[in-house]
């Protein structure tokens, strides 16, 4: 009797194919981590640029951006702030406009965050904060929020009084977070 040869793949061929698939998958996951790390660094740099622009406005014009009572005399298409030396919630909406009008932020800078949604300036307890979120809603995972705070801390200093995650970190894995950075 003649042994009949069966067509198909040997175990060695199958293991080689699975090994190649595993290597490709691991490379893709590492690539995704590298991209996310670069996005985190970009957002951390944006925060630093914003803080420099904020301080530059104060040095150049002697007033807080957004709170400047003479902004319309200096720039077009802006509104004056109330000039009380505090970034109120009404003033917070004008901060980015004043900084852009002064040429301290480009027209496209700080419009869209590379991770976490967008940027906006808010006022909490008469303190201006740059918020990284999706229109005031959390959009960062717990891992992203913690990593972003660490990256921002590397740039501006690890001060828990300046950088916060909101809401506070919980064990809920589906919870989404935002990051707030104190700017004045």
What does this structure look like?
With 184 residues, this protein is an alpha+beta fold. It has a single domain, classed as TcpA-like pilin (2-Layer Sandwich), CATH 3.30.1690. Helices cover 44% and strands 12% of the residues. The protein contains 5 helices and 4 strands. 28% of the residues are buried.
Distance between the termini: 91 Å
The average pLDDT score comes to 87
The name of the CATH topology is TcpA-like pilin
Poorly predicted sequence stretches spanning 5 or more consecutive residues:
none
The total of beta strands comes to 4
In short:
With 184 residues, the protein is α+β, with helices and mostly antiparallel strands. It contains five helices and four strands.
Q: What are the key terms here?
A:
184 residues; alpha+beta; TcpA-like pilin; 4 strands
Secondary structure: elements and pairs:
Layout: H1 11-61, H2 71-74, H3 89-92, H4 95-101, E1 118-124, E2 127-133, H5 142-156, E3 163-166, E4 178-182
Antiparallel strand pairs: 1-2, 2-4, 3-4
Helix pairs in contact: 1-5
């Amino acid at each position: 009797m003649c042994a009949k040869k069966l067509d198909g793949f040997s175990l060695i061929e199958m293991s080689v194919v699975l090994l190649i698939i595993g290597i490709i998958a691991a490379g893709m996951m590492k690539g995704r981590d590298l991209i996310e790390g670069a996005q985190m660094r970009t957002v951390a740099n944006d925060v630093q640029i914003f803080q420099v622009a904020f301080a530059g406005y104060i040095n150049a014009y002697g007033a807080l951006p957004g709170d400047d009572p003479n902004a319309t005399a200096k720039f077009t298409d802006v509104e004056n702030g109330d000039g009380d030396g505090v970034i109120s919630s009404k003033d917070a909406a004008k901060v980015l406009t004043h900084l852009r009008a002064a040429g301290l932020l480009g027209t496209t800078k700080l419009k869209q965050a590379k991770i976490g949604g967008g940027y906006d300036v808010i006022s909490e307890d008469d303190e201006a904060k740059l918020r990284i979120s999706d229109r005031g809603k959390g959009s960062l995972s717990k891992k992203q929020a913690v990593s972003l705070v660490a990256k921002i801390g590397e740039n501006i200093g690890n001060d828990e009084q300046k950088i916060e995650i909101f809401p506070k970190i919980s064990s809920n894995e589906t919870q989404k977070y935002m990051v707030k950075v104190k700017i004045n």
